[in-house]
């Protein structure tokens, strides 16, 4: 068994339990309590430690008919703050505009009112950014495909080492919890150890795997896997692919062929939240190459995003926004650790909370 494969697996395999995809996180009540507390403390003259947010926005509390000029310092501070969290300048400006629009012309007596107005404006603006042209309900689409007796096919693509195979296994685990039957297709026929790595996940999750070893054309392996899934009535085929740099022409050509030949239901771009704006560049180049190398009139592009290693980024959540913003594809999954359960939905409230911290 390839060393690569085993190293990755040991960490991942440990636990079982409900996938975090189905857990609702509630941040609102907690943050309100914090605010109230802050206000109480702010009013004491000997208060030592001020949050940046309260120190910027406190000064406008109680002012009648807030004008743009009253807001400028706070907006400037907000923009700078957002940019330290990897929010691209253009997006930071949009967010600040929404905040300005929500405050201008108003008289907000208390700091708490200002704080909640800003929070709501940020949330609305982020929902607008993060709810792109196409939203995808994967479970609904899986069931629709099942009614047509076709497997629903997802292809995982991305550069090397971002977490494609690990997160493919997490998605499989989540689908299993929804009584969806899954088959894995080992179409990374390039990197040594890749097939064994996927086989180990398949064995641990007791999921069938379709594999043809190495040096085969991954497009053909995927096609055979889909045929097999159609025969044996699998609901979903999850296609693992080799990592490739966005500028590697031969590998991008092979990926384009795989996508064109198999016309999957979902092309999922896997990107590290960690690398910040580099992931944005990868995503646009993948889309560009898929468009340029396609043989079809209407080339298939990236449909959705799986953001990995969210557990390692601290408060640098900005790349998630940029990726959706430039591609129009929604963040469908967020990988947040190395266990099978560590897969979440993107939570806008938690992002707002992180951005305003
Ligand atoms: N902390 C953390 N680590 C992760 C996450 N997802 C994947 N990893 C780790 O990232 C490393 C690479 O994961 P793989 O799944 O092998 O990545 P890959 O994209 O398939 O890699 P290649 O096939 O070589 O291109 C492994 O050590 C994983 O355990 C995550 O959400 N959080
Ligand atoms: Mg892999």
TrEMBL record:
What is the first-listed, main subcellular location in coarse terms? endoplasmic reticulum
According to the entry, every stretch annotated as the SRP54-type proteins GTP-binding domain falls at 330-343
One annotated GO molecular function is: signal recognition particle binding
Organism superkingdom: Eukaryota
InterPro entries found in the cross-reference section: AAA+_ATPase, P-loop_NTPase, Signal_recog_particl_SRP54_hlx, SRP/SRP_N, SRP54_GTPase_dom, SRP54_N_sf
Q: How does it sit in the membrane?
A: Peripheral membrane protein
Q: Which GO terms describe its biological process?
A: SRP-dependent cotranslational protein targeting to membrane
SUPFAM superfamilies to which the protein is assigned, alphabetical: Domain of the SRP/SRP receptor G-proteins (SSF47364), P-loop containing nucleoside triphosphate hydrolases (SSF52540)
Region annotation (Disordered) ranges: 1-49
Subcellular location, in the record's words? Answer: Endoplasmic reticulum membrane
Q: What is this protein called?
A: SRP54-type proteins GTP-binding domain-containing protein
From which source organism is this entry? Malus baccata (Siberian crab apple)
């Amino acid at each position: 068994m390839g060393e690569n494969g085993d190293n990755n697996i040991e960490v991942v395999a440990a636990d079982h339990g409900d996938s975090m995809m189905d857990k609702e996180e509630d941040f609102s009540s907690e943050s309100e309590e914090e605010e109230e507390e802050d206000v109480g403390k702010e009013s004491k003259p000997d208060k030592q430690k001020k949050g940046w947010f309260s120190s910027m926005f406190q000064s406008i509390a109680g002012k009648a008919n807030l004008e743009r000029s009253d807001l400028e310092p706070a907006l400037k501070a907000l923009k700078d703050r957002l940019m330290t969290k990897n929010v691209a300048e253009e997006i930071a400006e949009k967010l600040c505009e929404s905040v300005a629009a929500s405050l201008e012309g108003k008289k907000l007596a208390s700091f708490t009112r200002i704080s909640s107005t800003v929070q709501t404006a940020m949330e609305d603006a982020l929902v607008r950014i993060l709810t792109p042209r196409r939203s995808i309900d994967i479970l609904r689409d899986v069931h629709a495909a099942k009614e047509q007796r076709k497997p629903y096919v997802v292809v995982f693509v991305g550069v090397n080492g971002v977490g494609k195979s690990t997160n493919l296994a997490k998605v499989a685990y989540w689908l299993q919890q929804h009584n969806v039957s899954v088959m894995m297709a080992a179409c990374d026929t390039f990197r040594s150890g890749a097939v064994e790595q996927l086989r180990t996940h398949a064995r641990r999750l007791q999921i069938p795997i379709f594999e043809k070893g190495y040096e085969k054309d991954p497009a053909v392996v995927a096609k055979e896997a889909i045929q097999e899934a159609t025969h044996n009535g699998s609901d979903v085929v999850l296609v693992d692919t080799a990592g490739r740099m966005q500028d590697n022409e031969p590998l991008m050509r092979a990926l384009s062929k795989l996508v064109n030949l198999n016309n999957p239901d979902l092309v999922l771009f896997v990107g590290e939240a960690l690398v910040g704006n580099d992931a944005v560049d990868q995503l646009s180049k993948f889309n560009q190459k898929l468009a340029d190398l396609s043989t079809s009139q209407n080339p298939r592009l990236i449909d959705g995003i799986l953001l990995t290693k969210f557990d390692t980024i601290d408060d640098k959540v900005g790349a998630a926004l940029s990726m959706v913003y430039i591609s129009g594809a929604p963040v469908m999954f967020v990988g947040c650790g190395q266990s099978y359960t560590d897969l979440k939905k993107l939570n806008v409230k938690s992002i707002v909370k992180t951005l305003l911290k």
